[in-house]
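User: Predict Aminopeptidase O (putative)'s structure from this.
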Amino acid sequence: MDMQLDPAGDDLPLMANTSHILVKHYVLDLDVDFESQVIEGTIVLFLEDGDRFKKQNRSVEEACQSESNKGCKLGMPEPCHVPVTNARTLSSEMEYNDCAICSKGEKDTSDKDGNHDNQEHAAGVSSSKRCCDTGNHGSEEFLLVLDCCDLSVLKVEEVDVAAVPGMEKFTRSPELTVVSEELRNQIVRELVTLPANRWREQLDYYARCSQAAGCGELLFDTDTWSLQIRKTGAQTATDFPHAIRIWYKTKPEGRSVTWTSDQSGRPCVYTVGSPVNNRALFPCQEPPVAMSTWQATVRAAASFVVLMSGENSAKPTQLWEGCSSWYYYVTMPMPASTFTIAVGCWTELKMEPCSSGDSATETPFSPSEADFRHVGVCSHMEYPCRFQNAFATTQQIIPHRVFAPVCLTGACQETLLQLIPPCLSAAHSVLGTHPFSRLDVLIVPANFPSLGMASPHIMFLSQSILTGGSHLCGTRLCHEIAHAWFGLALGARDWTEEWLSEGFASHLEDVFWAAAQQLAPREAREQQELRACLRWRRLQDEMQSSPAEMQVLRPNKDKTGHTSDSGASVIKHGLNPEKIFMQVHYLKGYFLLRFLAERLGDETYFSFLRKFVHAFHGQLILSQDFLQMLLENIPEEKRLELSVENIYQDWLESSGIPKLLPDQLVLLLEHLLEQKTLSHRTLRSLQRTYQLQDQDAEVRHRWCELIVKHKFTKAYESVERFLQEDQAMGVYLYGELMVSEDARQQQLARRCFERTREQMDRSSAQVVADMLF
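Assistant:
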């Protein structure tokens, strides 16, 4: 690889050579065995070499130079929300696919480190490390590098897609007379580029190809963070097999999933949003740029429910007594890190019948092909897009299901079930079209490390949100719903810019929740101001207790979004355990967006946000994409001194709390004046951070009020200075000093008055004298 890693460091490597070759589709075929705590099976990768996708990326980038472009006009795709192929037809006939929980599979021939017991492979790949390269330089053999850890890779082989009946339609010749590597790769190239309106056919062919026989084993090797695959004689990505099958199994200690028991004491396993993402669940390309689709067949004992990131509301297919199969698929290209699975004895809650007014939005999303007409053009790669569907754009409440351990169904029925429809409707009223066609909500086990996690078509929520009324449940639900737009439909191209996901979700959760509660504008404003105050205090605490380098929202600065020549990169502090619990990307990002919304006004800001979502959904973004389009779309009189460079400097590329404008400081200090107690440590931090003694008179007036209220004696000099130099605004402070009944403050008031009474306006002097004597 062309990058250096510090083994003792906390950076997360993304090893996949995505600049040379991309995974376009995954087909997973897996067995879940709770006895051994292992997920075992195959994954088939359909690949596209660099020359083709680089041309596609260039065309998309050119189309997205500005929000006014007409985008990439897509075909007339069919609706993408109806389950298709029967899961039974997707089950592999190979021996290893027997349901592992029902009967034991083949003996594992890998050693404890997951290396295949194949001396030819081991020797061949070990010696190849010096002569292989991830690119295509001269006579060196091409090396496919996948992100992978905590997995036992058993075998890698090329898939003979040309042997699948009907594949001749993907070749230039009517008959497959001479089968070659070039022909097989041609078939895959044609398959992965089928237009969006043939998505059903495409999924069917992916499934059929994934079950085709192998046509030659490939050499492979694993290290701590990657799986490396090569084929003898394949010197370039174009020559490398474009359909490969990997036989593998997870390890009980693998970091991508957690094996545990639910609140009812029943076994379960689920993805936990690990820092290593999904590379310990299946070999994949982790960098966000590797946008792919997937379909998966998962087998487990019949008593278990399998939930997954999928467009279809899957139902179990019984394979034989005691064993069921579940099938899910996704047609919207997403980073592999967003794939989510949860297998357990979950109970589905039954929804109350909808009122007649909501029934139209709650029916399964299956409009006729005639309804699937263009509402607007899109700039993303081609897929069946809801933003182009007239029915989807008006669908306020998408179909949803709720699952929970049996012991928590009552609590879910009382709180969660009632909140989902108004929160979904509120989100639609603010941002428009729901990016995803349906939603599963799962109450995860008690060991889940956060309050919630959003993935395509599925959301995890902690049991902690179910008690104490609806507020915490509603706000967290709104936060995760917001991620459907920011974090999923629009993802960060560089994972260090987490604020593009968490900052937006934090800001939008307040707006969604106020709309879901149907609050009057004044009530909504008061609720949001209170939450802003609480967040400000949390941000201050975090700034004091965290390293400065981890307080920066754009740590890579001008190198943001850059990768090595191969596409590999490193996520700074990606493995730092403290980072999981830090709130800086949430809070600092929230306050930046709040600042922008206040500067523009809510109507202008949210109108722009809907425009931005429509322009960039289905794509990866950087901070500059958002900021440049924002500044291009706001009136000159509201732009004032705003610039991308200023926002970078003040908010994104510096540690600590951002510099606020005077009006914002006044608002902040007024919020703090409503607090009953503030520590002197907090006041010192405020003074030092914002240099309050040097601000304008409006800010200093509120600062002096805080000093008086909390008897911050070390800053009494600021009060004296204000009473002497800002007499037009100081009268009220005299009253505050006297009302406190603090001898030292009263003495300060009288001393200042004696110094200034001769120069004071006569009426003002009389008012103050009445207060003091």
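The longest helix spans residues 521-545.
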